[in-house]
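INTERNAL AUDIT FORM
Audit reference: QA-55
Scope: verify that the stored structure record matches its stored sequence.
Auditor: D.O.
Record contents follow.
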Amino acid sequence: MAVSVQTEPSFTPGAPEVMFEGDYLLGAAGRTYDLSPDGLRFLMIKEGGGAEDASEAASLILVQNWFQELKRLVPVD
């Protein structure tokens, strides 16, 4: 949702407007969206569509010590 506001002569909120429609994830464990630093783009997580989507969304690949591995594979001599 988005609401336009006026600050002069006093704070006056406008009517709420729907910005996005669809099945987006609502996060109980944290934020499921982010805004780009320039404020021009959103990143949002959509709900999965089926069992195969759910299993993929439940996995996470964590790479630790990647910089040491990079140095090993591409030496800077």
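Auditor finding: record pair retrieved intact. The longest strand covers residues 33-35.
Action required: none
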